[in-house]
Amino acid sequence: MSPPSILSICTIGGHLSKPFYILPLASFVGKFVAKVVQVDREASHGYHTPGEKGLSVGRFAISTANTIRTLMTIDGTSQRRSSVVRVAALAVFLPLAFVACSGPFPQSTLHPTSDFAVAIDDLYRIIFWFAVAVFVFVEGLLVFVVVRYRAKPGGEAKHVHGSTALEIAWTLAPAVVLVFIAVPTMQTIFQTEGAVPDGALEVEVIGHQWWWEFKYPELGITTANELHLPQGRAVVLAMSSADVIHSFWVPKLAGKRDVMPGRTSRLMFTPDSTGPYLGQCAEFCGESHANMRFRVMVDPSETFEQWTAAQLTAPTPVDSLTGRVRQGAEAFQRVRTPANHSCVACHAIEGVSFGVLGPNLSHVASRTTIASGILPNTTEGLTRWLRDPVGEKPGSLMPNIELTEDEIAALVAYLQSLN
Fold this sequence. Notes:
Layout: H1 3-16, H2 22-44, H3 50-72, H4 82-101, H5 115-148, H6 164-192, E1 201-208, E2 211-216, E3 221-224, E4 226-230, E5 235-241, E6 246-249, E7 257-259, E8 265-269, E9 275-281, E10 293-299, H7 301-311, H8 323-333, H9 343-346, E11 348-349, E12 353-354, E13 369-370, E14 375-376, H10 379-387, H11 389-392, H12 405-416
Parallel strand pairs: 1-5, 4-10
Antiparallel strand pairs: 1-2, 2-3, 5-8, 6-7, 6-9, 9-10, 11-12, 13-14
Helix pairs in contact: 1-3, 1-4, 2-3, 2-4, 5-6, 8-12, 10-12
């Protein structure tokens, strides 16, 4: 660490070690931790990406730094004592420790919940501990050489022109290391890319800018942005793209898979634990790449069968609707100018419309989020989306069709009836 850096730490510590700074110090550290917990909670519900989470915590860190600066201006003295350094180090690194360890981690690959994810995690741990062993050996050898052959009083350096045995050894050593890494890696590849097991559920995954479409060919179901899977049953995802290259990634369930136009990528795994799992596009695909999120709902077999039955139930015919819901259905069916401002031109609802450009809305009320996971599927979330989709999701292909507040309220009522 450079002398100016040491001096800065000692200066901060000198001020913060005084009794009348203890309460302000405890205050801003407590606020910092509270902010981390708040942002973590929001991230666990899928309303923030890791980048947004870091940005939010980062902004609060800047404010705490300004607090330190204010405290330092009260008294310009500085004492370079060991106790001061300890207090300063605690003040600086304790909040960082809370940031790193506060949790939860909804998109951690270190908590696998499928056979595929477990295989990847096992491979990672093998390579990690092997790397630790190599590191310890190399650094130990380095320390031994430094100590054993250090300069001695009156000693004279001896020049060595080379050692054939040593040169052969350090040439073969990397090759041996690569073999130890390659063997378990190849085993994992064959394990995760094996034959499709009997009875596997096949799902077609189609990436769009910026949302995900899921089709169940054997069930006759089409949905969007929420993938429901049965616990304990093998799943095969056949993935392609309708526009540009995307990347399908659910960290706790499986590794990344590129999703490309004109080509089908396959991903096979068996989920072993229930619960919602957050996923996202992991390949930059345009303006709202960071907003291309989705959720995987792994359900017990009985719950999955109930969900399947509900998805196969046709929505109530428009002629049978009444009140505000009927008004919303009529607003949905209304042909507007230009044509792409008409809901029916882009969205499909069974028995009502057959659009294919946007998400299928036949049972949109059964989903927990809308707009590819960026808004909760609530009255407020639907209202915000219908009022200004481009403002909520930059680059959105759904235009702002300038609906009236009455039309928005009616459409929200209609969409909430589609469960």
